[in-house]
Amino acid sequence: MALPWVRLDTQWPQNPKFLMLVEDKKWRAISVYFAGLAWSGAQGQAGYVPKSALPMIHATVKEAGELVSARLWIPAQGGWDINDWVEYQPTNEEHERRSQKARAAALARWNKAVGGE
After folding, report:
1. What's the confidence (pLDDT) of residue 116?
2. Angle, nearest 10°, between helix axes 27-42 and 16-23?
3. Measuring CA to CA, which residue among 97, 21, 98 is closest to residue 66?
4. Which residues 6+ apart lie within 8 Å of 53 measured at CB?
5. Contact at 8 Å (CB) between 38 and 15?
6. Ordered per-residue pLDDT tens for the chain, 117 residues
7. Angle CA 81–16–34, to nearest 5
């Protein structure tokens, strides 16, 4: 299941991994990191970015290598895993449970409002 959003740490600009990329003026790699987060979440890939997705996130193998060097991506078979994805992003199952709970609560509110109770 696709995620409609991904979490983004508000402290990312101070993260030493990003500071290293900034110092080296690797702006494209930073952009690719965020595009990779969004793509992986939208595609239900749970933090995995296959090599075939690089054009979709406006990336090249060079930027992927820069993200690996910065320890933001981890090499995986056929692509890369986004470091710490499982620590900070909801799982597809969590997202589905939350969505079902929210739908049930909305339905209950609607039924109460329509029923006049």
Report:
1. 59
2. 130
3. 21
4. 36, 39, 43, 79
5. no
6. 677 888 888 999 999 999 999 999 999 999 999 999 999 999 989 999 999 999 999 999 999 999 999 999 999 999 999 999 988 886 666 656 665 665 666 666 777 777 755
7. 45
Task: Give dist(CA 4, CA 62) in Å, integer.
Answer: 28
Three-state secondary structure readout of the chain: CCCCCCCCCCCHHHCHHHHHHHHCCCHHHHHHHHHHHHHHHHCCCCCEEEHHHHHHHCCCHHHHHHHHHCCCEEEECCEEEECCHHHHCCCHHHHHHHHHHHHHHHHHHHHHHHHCC
Classify residue 74 as exposed, middle or buried by CB count within 10 Å of its CB (0-12, 13-18, 19+): middle
Global pTM value = 0.78
Pair type for strands 73-76 and 48-50: unpaired
